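Final report, closing paragraph on structural work. Over the funding period we assembled a curated collection of sequence-structure pairs, and we close with a single example.
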Amino acid sequence: MAASTKAVALFKRTLALSPPRCPGGGQRCSSSPLPLPGGRRRGGSRLLHQGSPPGACPASPRFQQPVSPLLCPQDALSDGLKTCYRYLNQTSRSFAAVIQALDGELRHAVCIFYLVLRALDTVEDDMTINLETKVPMLHDFHSYLYQPDWRYMESKEKDKQVLEDFPTISLEFRNLAKVYRDVIADICHNMGAGMAEFLEKKVDTQHEWDKYCHYVAGLVGIGLSRLFSASELEDPVVGQDTELANSMGLFLQKTNIIRDYLEDQLEGREFWPREVWSRYAKKLSDLAKPENIDVAVQCMNELITNALHHVPDVLTYLSRLKNQSVFNFCAIPQVMAIATLAACYNNKQVFRGLVKIRKGQAVTLMMDATNIQAVKAIMYQYVEEIYQKVPSTDPSSNKTQQIIVSIRTMSLPNGVAVSRNHYSPIYLSCAMLLAALSWQYLSAMSKVSEEYVQASEN
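Its predicted structure, as stored:
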């Protein structure tokens, strides 16, 4: 009975759109989740196309508690902000929900940050724009934020509305506090320059792979971290330590690049570094050939090992966060990423089709990743899964095992594993049912918020 009660209570927290006020205070308790927006077509940031699914996240006592529910009715949204949230839902439903779970004015700043970078990314993605036009646009895009009438009407991309109605987005950008404007404009400037650099340049060395991922994802992590600190929901060190923030983005971007090998090949894109794949094949596309499957898997394992080196930075970064909504926003995509790498490691299916984590698994991760100890336990679980699959004949096996040992030590400094599988059978039965219901609910969350915006306009 106790297990059933616990499961029902967890489900109720999942459905909490407007958390109650905390005892003894005027602030509301937190019940929200990601972040760093992940996917990409021809160029730009995968983090701006996929986002992690939203999740229900019970609050932990170690966190500060203020939060606003998804587009809470008491928010007095301007017409421009209503339009921006509608564009947010249209361009990335999953990311829209997690942005709207952030606290206070930070929510609006991150919404505008996302739309500005999505507009920039749409320019970079649009193959109908010739290079003579595109390169200057990418370099100058940050300046358009201060040009009230600037818009671009010739894009053929599906998200062209963020360019056609850029005046609305730039107006709401200019309405933000200066501390937010400075961050967004600076990141937009640097990302535009990086995108222009890699327009006709392939990723050759592992250093260039890191540089490319920095431009399209690390800068997102750095920008978000600076926004967190500017909001004063997090300490200044979160925004100042750009190395850790960069690693947050690189871990997500590299995971998506590794997982999406086949999709990218089918669409004529190449993001795996030549320095690595050239040791296994003459052309990157050769790895998709059935006769090369063994060396293809070895190549992928080496890249996964490279990505795992960011995990210690990820854990250090997350350990500094104090606000529950920010923690959830940042932690959920990271645990999704480690689960994805564990599914991909030594898996031939990556070269035959898309490897995904199960929906039930995703929901469990979203509900569990609400404090640093839980995240460490999740990381430990999945690196152990990878460790058990490391072939003794794999060329990078020693390096893989070494980084896993480092992650183990950091995850469990006292050598005591925190079990995540101690539930009773009745709890597991309830959890499976509630996970399925929660997934349906979470999938509809963005739709609800979009309908709210439309209703507000009417």
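The first helix runs from residue 2 to 14. The chain has a mean pLDDT of 82. We thank the funder for supporting this effort.
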